[in-house]
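Build the 3D complex.
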Amino acid sequence: MDIFSNLWLGASTAFMPMNLFYGFIGCLLGTAIGVLPGLGPTATIAMLLPITFGLPPESALIMLAGIFYGAQYGGSTTAILINLPGESSSVVTAIDGYQMARNGRAGAALATAALGSFFAGTVATILLAVAAPPLAAVALNFGPAEYFSLMVLGLVASVALASGSLLKAFAMIVFGLILGTVGTDVESGTPRYVFDIPELYDGLNFVAVSMGIFGICEILRNLESEHERSVGVKRVTGLMLTRQDIKRIIAPVLRGTALGSFLGVLPGGGAMLASFASYAMEKRISPNRAEFGKGAIEGVAAPESANNAGAQTSFIPMLTLGIPGNPVMALMVGAMIIQGITPGPNVISDEPALFWGMIVSMWSGNLMLVILNLPLIGLWVKMLTVPYHLLFPAIIGFCCIGAYSINNSVFDVFVMAGFSVIGFALSKMRFEPAPLLLGFILGPMLEENLRRAMLISQGDPSIFVRSPLSLSLLIFAVVVLALVLSPSISRKREEAFTE
Amino acid sequence: MRQSAGRILRPAGMTFTREYHAMLKIRNSRDFVGGVTMICVGLLFIWFGQELEVGNSFQMGPGYFPTMLSLLLMAIGALIVVQSLMVDAEAGDPETWNWKAYFLVILGPIGFGLALAGLGLAPTMLLLIVGVATASRYANWRHSILLGLFLAACSVLLFTKLLSLPVSAFGPWIPFIGDLF
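Done.
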């Protein structure tokens, strides 16, 4: 079988001592930032991107991926132990997980979260290995029109699945797309919006932009309502699950994995949506639904499997189509570009070691996380005692030097500072920053494909509906939009997000 | 807040203010400002991109895509404004503002950028950390300075020694120590 030789290639890459080491570092860092509220994977990956420039591409991407799914593990630990979700994707885990901890079952909750995540991670990895090559093969036949339609669908869907006002999310996408046009126009060589600043001829640096709107901006928000954390945690005992526990979690884990894997592939989806949706579903169909909110083990198993599955399958569109579905994937695309790899369907055939190595590393990383997390829980909880007034200056320091090291120029530090102001102003007006980053990353690709398609068709926009593939992608985008705008769904959507 | 302020300011019996009020009643001031901001952003990009050749849909010039997007952004902004006049704002948490923190956290990186070449990495880092730490109401000088020294040493070790960034630990503004490194 072809897939086995591919996985073998992946294993030989992922289990190279250096890659194992960077994978381990990624998981460790990911868990740490997952535990710490106020520092998410997006900001961390943006901060660490410059450091990975010197690494080989495999090691760099394996480490960055480790940070992302490691954060899913870390976030649940604090959610269960002290009712403080470290990540948005573990918010629902806190509901029943913390109740379990209060009932003296913290160990069981943590074990459920870890095992559910591991199972989901394994399934999602297999799914990625099986689904990615055929998807990429389809995408290889994509012309500019299909690519354009695909990106439109991606952007529309990412708005539909985001929380908050739709109009505002659209505004952010368009704003991001416009920001993406800053710099030299690839087709004509004309500089756009550069104001005679030489550093701007290459465009705004996305690392600096994302550090500004995610890293620094988050600090500004956190400082508004700063309060000391008091951490009182009892000793965690009894990590073993009883036979009855195992019986109760099997179905929720399977359902969570399935739902999470599906939602992760969708643009705009990923870990957070997956965990919310699977908790809501479980609450409706579980035979023990009366226990929900009072420490039902299903309420931990389902969302924790779902968020890990979603985190992992969100790599599928990024790796096969080169289209990021969430900000973290947008940063991964950026990391690939920096490493000299063109993201898209060619990655699998051009860089098989990188592609399969990453996939296998996700599985080995998940294994590491299970082994790493359960015994080290005491250490992670200790990390919470690091007060925020020591944490945030360090984050700012790292952001500054990280921004500087992108091009060894202080200009990017100023870009970062500027975008922290922009991001903060936008967040005060309740505009979400995530669609902006997606638009910013996709902008140049969208424009290039639009222009190429229109050149091929000699200015006839019907090219987008003449190709059946492009047409069906656009129809799908319209359907998604119509669904979200329809009153009954939008009401449900609001319910889902407030829950 | 806006509405109550309007009520206080409106002198009784002046009909034109009542008409004005009925016509332009902002129900969601945050969205109103947001929509207007988006319109302004669109206008700014059109203004600064007027030199760019727009072309036509067949031969798109460099200005085509940004101009279209700016127009789209203005349209969305207008819709947000309309919505803010028709739909009431949902009751949310009251906004808290911490101007001291904004000021310090945003000026910190700018100061870092300005001072880096002259002071060198170590002193700039120390100043940055101590400076931004004061944004927290729980910060104390001893902790901040210790943290700053620690991070300055770490960043010199990691970035100038290991990753060999082209920035010295101590810059030309600090001649004597700078010569030692």
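Chain B has eight helices and no strands.
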